[in-house]
Write a structure and sequence with these properties.
189 residues; Rossmann fold
Length: 189
């Protein structure tokens, strides 16, 4: 089976990237008659995150289109077999998934552990991509802030940057969303 089309969407916090991703998914669903799937990686670990998750759920429920929501905060490749070749899947988001993978273990963030986490994420995304028609992957840009003074933040930014590079390399389309405006970085213009 051929891999699904991969669309990568990134942007800063509250840039409108998730709304843009949902719009793209809806358009593709209408065009292809495909089922909409929302693969949520967030964990309601604090009041702000609970509020953000509730808003995303409310926004999808308020729409006239039905989304199947699948919550998987780690090891996303384990659920690949629940998707079908005609599915449109929106994975939101890679930075939250990375956080969950990194902080679920008390392991030291050495190169071996970071490489394992990166492989787990990329392999999981590829496993899901093999099962779908279109996979839309959302992530955050965290590189606009100073990171050099904190080793933990620097390590996080490095692995996220490597994940982004791999995803963009494999993507059919890539977008950066700034202030609600999608900027096409790769693919059909």
């Amino acid at each position: 089976m051929a891999a699904a089309s991969l669309i990568f969407i990134t942007g800063g916090v509250r840039s409108g990237k998730s709304s843009f991703a949902e719009k793209v998914a809806l358009e593709l669903s209408l065009k292809n008659g495909s089922r909409l799937n929302y693969l949520a990686t967030g964990v309601a670990s604090d009041p702000e995150m609970r509020e953000r998750i509730a808003k995303h759920q409310s926004d999808r429920e308020a729409g006239k289109f039905h989304w199947r929501t699948v919550e998987q905060s780690q090891s996303i490749g384990q659920i690949a077999d629940i998707f079908y070749k005609e599915d449109i899947i929106l994975l939101d988001c890679v930075t939250t998934l990375l956080n969950n993978e990194l902080f679920s273990s008390n392991q030291k963030w050495d190169q071996l552990f970071l490489a394992h986490v990166m492989k787990t994420i990329i392999t999981g995304i590829n496993s899901i991509r093999e099962r779908a028609k279109v996979l839309i992957v959302v992530s955050n840009e965290v590189f606009f802030e100073s990171i050099a003074e904190n080793e933990l933040v620097f390590s996080y930014a490095q692995i996220l940057g490597k994940i982004h590079q791999q995803l963009v390399k494999n993507a059919d389309q890539a977008f950066l969303v700034e202030a609600g405006i999608p900027i096409n970085m790769k693919g059909v213009k």
